[in-house]
Amino acid sequence: MCGTCGCGQPEKPQQRIIELEKDLLDENNHYAHENRQYFQEHNILAINFVSSPGAGKTTLLVKTIEALKNHFSIAVIEGDQQTDLDAQQIAATGAKVKQINTGKSCHLDAHQIGHAIKDLVLEKNSILFIENVGNLICPAMFDLGETQRVALLSVTEGDNKPLKYPDMFHSADLMIINKTDLLPHVDFNIVECSDYAKRINPSIQLMTISATKSDGMDDWLGWLSRAR
Amino acid sequence: MCGTCGCGQPEKPQQRIIELEKDLLDENNHYAHENRQYFQEHNILAINFVSSPGAGKTTLLVKTIEALKNHFSIAVIEGDQQTDLDAQQIAATGAKVKQINTGKSCHLDAHQIGHAIKDLVLEKNSILFIENVGNLICPAMFDLGETQRVALLSVTEGDNKPLKYPDMFHSADLMIINKTDLLPHVDFNIVECSDYAKRINPSIQLMTISATKSDGMDDWLGWLSRAR
Questions:
Q1: Would you call A53 and B52 a contact, using CB atoms and an 8 Å cutoff?
Q2: Would the CB atoms of A163 and B85 count as touching at under 8 Å?
Q3: Cα angle for residues B176, B179, B185 (degrees, 5° grid)
Q4: Which of A106, B46, B50, B205 has the greatest number of beta carbons closer than 10 A?
Q5: pLDDT tens column, A78-103
Q6: Global ipTM
Q7: Annotated domain spans of chain B
């Protein structure tokens, strides 16, 4: 009978879920370790971009590639449930891109990344951007072996998101507050949002940008330069 | 060895995942059937609200409750990974509210809803709003026994989301395009977005609103009235 709540209904397969999750995460961590070793050996900066759907990951990536493509070899892994719409935008910049469609799955995993980096044939001293599936929950649990995890939050989503989705902001190295050009039209307090993020993750770094208007890009490109 | 891709790495526990997912969904469908029967027997309109984080579900709910609370008994189930911030907003309207924190989990399930409706002691001929976890992927798979599923999409998220997250829009009865007050400031084509949604789900109904500005509320309240 139901062991979760004592309601007398048939038991949920909780124990099986917990065991399978542990196996999945253990396996994922094994692949993530391999990816991380590969990135270190080849001096590759690998950035895992995470956010809600539509927070501006692709727009920021396109602007970033345009700014850096004459200085660095850049490759991109695009994670989406369906379509290659984002990969088409990236390909138009001239960067190498590999699309991963996750189907029913809600996140990228380290095994998929291991295959993608072989397909992409990354150069030494290059930059790899991984655009994860738009989802503030599930991708938090899956280490991809990335050098840095960057969480984008759009000002249209509300300033309390770090409290409501704590795992994601706890696991991120940097939170970028994006779409600051829309601040005059929405109810969003940057100071409060930053305080919430620091409450969840005292070591998180913070930045504000408007990717569409190219505001704050110098801060972002400077951060990337230091991360290398 | 890896049966997914033939890469020679240890096999992923794919078969176990598929079996467990089937068990979980079968079990969920059993509880969903019970909930649906309960709603039908008591003539309760149960609406399952789904969207990305920050698309405006709570704001729309507060406005809807304010408009209807003198005419109907209204209860709300709030699904969030963490915090009861949304439930506090709902409670301030005077509506009955039950918070469910899902922790590591990325969606509400029908078993949780079954417990919550017992705790709420719903009245006959009442309306139950279920605000699901902000996530465009996982909640699509879990029938809660609802009368209608309503997907909110904010114009700040981009008009291609029905193509990128097809399961959610395929499973919805109504897509509400929200935050139309921000249309002058973002790149979003309502006609194209509607075409994409119809391509995924030819029977989906469509509506545009601005919950914060109360634009389109008559259409929405009319739809709710017909749904009863």
A1: yes
A2: yes
A3: 135
A4: B50
A5: 999 999 999 999 999 999 999 999 99
A6: 0.92
A7: 14-227
